[in-house]
Design brief:
This protein is an alpha/beta fold. It has two domains: 10-130 and 235-338, 3-Layer(aba) Sandwich (D-Maltodextrin-Binding Protein, domain 2); 133-232, 3-Layer(aba) Sandwich (D-Maltodextrin-Binding Protein, domain 2). The chain is built from 13 helices and 13 strands. The chain has helices at residues 10-20, 33-41, 67-80, 93-101, 116-122, 164-173, 187-195, 206-213, 243-261, 279-286, 288-295, 301-309, 312-319, and strands spanning 44-48, 57-58, 64-65, 86-90, 107-108, 124-126, 131-140, 155-159, 180-184, 201-205, 222-224, 231-234, 237-239. α1 runs parallel beside α10 (279-286) and α3 (67-80) runs antiparallel to α12 (301-309).
Length: 348
């Protein structure tokens, strides 16, 4: 059955499960400080990139779009009742963690790779993997470079404050390839330097390279080499210490994944769960108030999440897939039921 069609039995089951989240504890106010501050402020402050097409970028009218942007809106829908209650804070890579740790933002959703070093040293919490990526190289087609081995002696542009420089050194040194990294402060400046010919290659996550390639000067062609230097699981991040906030944001992500898995779409949730006939579903919905209080939200939070941005598959296709400028293949970012890595724990 196409993903756009919802089985009548799947919809109420998903909705019921999404709002059940059986809970045996009630959060103390000190653990829910972030959510309390967001509610008082009336807006979610979400740290995003300065402009990566497909993830977080502004159009000419100032409207933000992208996978990370949609995730921020889904969190706002769950916490504040409206997807539009988001203040997007554009950040350079080097400024993203300081902004989070100094409470300048509530949530970081900015193409950030989940690593042990970051989680342990910075004392942050990664919510879950939103996009599976890998670091690669972008090179001018005119050079004829077809593999990493041909980059020996080249200058390679990388952005400051990322894992890319370390990955570049580790990967190439093991293969006897010598390059000179040119570390530049911002993504825009890296792209400008690369297109100006200051670097023979640009190394970053391949999804970002695909976005940068769209900015190439007219008449010039650039290719992404087939090799991947590293794993790059991109994940939203929150400050450590507020378990209520971490749990809520994490389950917003899982709700998006489970919605696609069960065939629940944005348009299919217009009627809500009122038509549920199963006694088990009705019983679960009746208990949703207690579970929602433990999460710091209300029983309709999961409905609002999917109604605001659709399921994960809808988000992907709109921002990164065939309905986007990038036209990326799903690859690893397919549900586990379709041979991908996207897998969410059960909601009940």
């Amino acid at each position: 059955m196409p993903r756009s069609v919802i089985r009548a039995s799947a919809r109420p089951l998903f909705v019921a499960a999404a709002v059940s989240l059986a809970s045996v504890w009630v959060a103390s106010p000190s653990w829910a400080a972030t959510l309390t501050e967001i509610r008082a402020r009336g807006t979610l402050r979400c740290g995003v990139s300065e402009g990566i097409i497909g993830f977080s970028a502004r159009d000419g009218s100032g409207r933000w779009s992208g996978l990370d942007v949609d995730f921020c809106r889904a969190v706002a829908a769950a916490t504040l009742g409206e997807a539009g209650k988001v203040t997007f804070v554009p950040l350079r890579a080097s400024a993203r963690f300081p902004a989070l740790l100094t409470n300048a933002i509530d949530l970081l959703a900015r193409n950030t790779t989940w690593t042990l070093r970051r989680e342990a040293d910075l004392r942050v919490a990664f919510v879950g993997i939103l996009f599976y990526d890998g670091q690669g190289f972008l090179v001018p087609a005119s050079t004829g470079v077809k593999s990493v081995a041909q980059l020996d002696g080249a200058t390679v542009c990388v952005e400051k404050g990322t894992t890319h420089e370390d990955n570049l050194r580790d990967y190439l040194s093991a293969r006897g390839v010598r390059v000179t990294p040119l570390v530049i402060e911002s993504m825009a400046a890296v792209a400008d330097a690369f297109f100006a010919g200051r670097c023979g290659a640009y190394s970053s996550d391949t999804s970002q390279l695909a976005a940068v390639r769209l900015r190439a000067p007219a008449g010039r062609e650039f290719v992404i080499l087939p090799e991947r230097l590293s794993k790059a699981p991109l994940a939203p991040v929150v400050r450590r210490g507020d378990e209520v906030w971490l749990t809520l944001v994490r389950w917003v992500l899982y709700t998006l994944l489970l919605a696609e898995e069960q065939g629940v779409t944005k348009s299919g949730l217009r009627d809500g769960p009122e038509s549920a006939q199963s006694p088990v579903v009705r019983q679960t919905l009746g208990a949703a108030g207690e579970a929602a209080r433990a999460l710091g939200t209300d029983p309709d939070w999961a409905l609002r999440v999917v109604r605001s941005v659709g399921n994960y598959g809808e988000m992907f296709e709109r921002n990164l897939g065939q309905g986007s400028l990038l036209k990326l293949e799903r690859g690893l970012n397919r549900p586990w039921t379709q041979g991908g890595l996207l897998y969410a724990p059960p909601l009940r």
